[in-house]
Amino acid sequence: MNSALAEISEDHYSSLHQLNTVPKQKVLSVSHLRKSYNAHQTVLHDISFDLHRGEMVGVIGRSGAGKSTLLHVLNGTHSATSGEINSFPEVGTPRDVSRLKGRALNQWRSECGMIFQDFCLVPRLDVLTNVLLGRLSQTSTLKSLFKVFTDEDRARAIALLEWLNMLPHALQRAETLSGGQMQRVAICRALIQNPSILLADEPVASLDPKNTQRIMGVLREVSEQGISVMVNLHSVELVKEYCTRVIGVSQGRIVFDDHPSRLTQDVLQILYGDEISQLH
């Protein structure tokens, strides 16, 4: 395990050895989740599943199946039409985060971090500041605009950048980075929030094979630190190589939820139909 990540995670996450010797700890329970944009467009139908600490879950299915919408609803950037999303914190009682608003919703988005295919960095700001923007929920917008962050936040941002070999670029503007570098910065920005869950919406779709392997390896190491990772992927091979569990979505419904080794051709046919020949 990388020493920098171990140092910054010491107060928050247990070791991989501990994860393998204790029962699965539920961190999220989704029950009968439904998302409609209007009377004629229902994207998610009766979605139910549990998410456990330290899992790395690949979410697969053809384009338009509802994968991205699912992650956005879990994170709270899209509201649920009905159903429950119950969070199980290490301290405190479970709560239905789908009902949160205002500051409480912003806090949940810190606990349930998200990274995106298009990185969502601020192009003209330097790398270090982009990472520190992950602390927005813990500081005022005015302070963030003037780059007023605590020494503790700066130290953590630097440690994260060092872990992902991005520290030499800390003062470089984000718009000058390669795609793989931008995604590593986006991961640092999400992790500085100290999330218990990390959602990744097609994080390697625009990356070359070398950077794809690098980012997937980073996400797996994050899950090994006790953070639950859910990642939308188009590559079944990546799911089989990196994920501990796979959820298959078709037309807004979960049709498969099991270990990647149990992904048969029949299951893939249900998920992808005539697109199955395009899988890799």
Automatic annotation (TrEMBL):
<dbReference type="GO" id="GO:0005886">
    <property type="term" value="C:plasma membrane"/>
</dbReference>
<dbReference type="InterPro" id="IPR003593">
    <property type="entry name" value="AAA+_ATPase"/>
</dbReference>
<dbReference type="InterPro" id="IPR027417">
    <property type="entry name" value="P-loop_NTPase"/>
</dbReference>
<keyword id="KW-1278">Translocase</keyword>
<dbReference type="GO" id="GO:0005524">
    <property type="term" value="F:ATP binding"/>
</dbReference>
<keyword id="KW-1003">Cell membrane</keyword>
<dbReference type="InterPro" id="IPR012693">
    <property type="entry name" value="ABC_transpr_PhnC"/>
</dbReference>
<dbReference type="Pfam" id="PF00005">
    <property type="entry name" value="ABC_tran"/>
</dbReference>
<protein>
    <submittedName>
        <fullName>Phosphonate transport system ATP-binding protein</fullName>
    </submittedName>
</protein>
<keyword id="KW-0547">Nucleotide-binding</keyword>
<feature type="domain" description="ABC transporter">
    <location>
        <begin position="28"/>
        <end position="276"/>
    </location>
</feature>
<dbReference type="InterPro" id="IPR050086">
    <property type="entry name" value="MetN_ABC_transporter-like"/>
</dbReference>
<dbReference type="GO" id="GO:0016887">
    <property type="term" value="F:ATP hydrolysis activity"/>
</dbReference>
<keyword id="KW-0813">Transport</keyword>
<keyword id="KW-0472">Membrane</keyword>
<dbReference type="InterPro" id="IPR003439">
    <property type="entry name" value="ABC_transporter-like_ATP-bd"/>
</dbReference>
<dbReference type="GO" id="GO:0015416">
    <property type="term" value="F:ABC-type phosphonate transporter activity"/>
</dbReference>
<dbReference type="InterPro" id="IPR017871">
    <property type="entry name" value="ABC_transporter-like_CS"/>
</dbReference>
<keyword id="KW-0067">ATP-binding</keyword>
